Amino acid sequence: MSHFRSLNMTVVTLKGNPLELYGIQPLLGKKALEFHLTNSKLETVSLSQSKGKKRILSIFPSLDTGVCLTMNKHLNELAKSHPTIQFYAISCDLPFAASRICGLEKIEHMQPLSMMHNKQFGMDYGLLLTSGPLHGLLTRALIYIDALDIIQHVEIVSEITNEPDYQALLKVIQ
After folding, report:
1. Where are the chain's structural domains?
2. In contact, 84 and 172? CB cutoff 8 Å
3. pLDDT tens for residues 82-129?
C-alpha cells in the first residue's frame, strides 16, 4: 500500500510561471514518512523524536521572503493557542539564519528546521522544486500529522506567492 500519491510531475506556479516538483505528495490518511532535518544547534531532528505528538509542518522556500515570513508569523500565533501541537518551520535556509530570523521576528513557538544536510525530506514529500529560479528549494505547503503519525491535512499551495488556507488547517486541528 502506497503512503504517497504517485504522480508523473506536479506543477506549482511562481507568479503564474510553472515550476515542477520532484517526488510524490503525501496522501490523507496514510502514515507520514520519517524525516531527518537540522536544527539551529546542527542536531538532527526526526519525525520519530516527536512520536505521540501532533505536528504541523510549515514548509516554504525561505524565511527571507515576505510571504514565508508572514505565513510563519501567522502559524506562530496559532502555535501559541495550541501548545500540545509541535510546529516545525521547514526550509532550505541555513539553520543559523532561520533561527536568527525567528528570533528577530518573535517566532518563538515554532522550531525552525533546515534541509541543509539532507534533501531527502523534499524528495520524499514531493515538495522539492526542480525548475525555475527557486530550483532546489521547497515549495509552500502545510501538513498536519496526528499523534499516530497519520497525515490528516495536506495543502500544497498552487501559487508559491500565496499564503496557505489557514482556516482549512484550523478546522482539522480543532
Report:
1. 19-173
2. no
3. 999 999 999 999 999 999 999 999 999 999 999 998 899 999 999 999
Catalytic: 68? yes
What's the pLDDT tens digit per position in 34-66?
999 999 999 999 999 999 999 999 999 999 999
Catalytic residue, candidates 32, 57, 59, 68:
68
Question: Are the C-beta atoms of 89 and 107 separated by less than 8 Å?
Answer: yes
**CATH match of 19-173 with 3.40.30.10:** yes
Residue with cell 524528495: 123
Cα–Cα distance between 56 and 27 in angstroms, integer? 15
Backbone angles phi, psi at 102, to 5 degrees: -60, -40
What pTM was computed for the model? 0.92
Non-local CB neighbours of 7 within 8 Å, separated by 6+ positions = 24, 25, 126
Q: Retrieve residue 133's grid coordinates.
A: 529560479
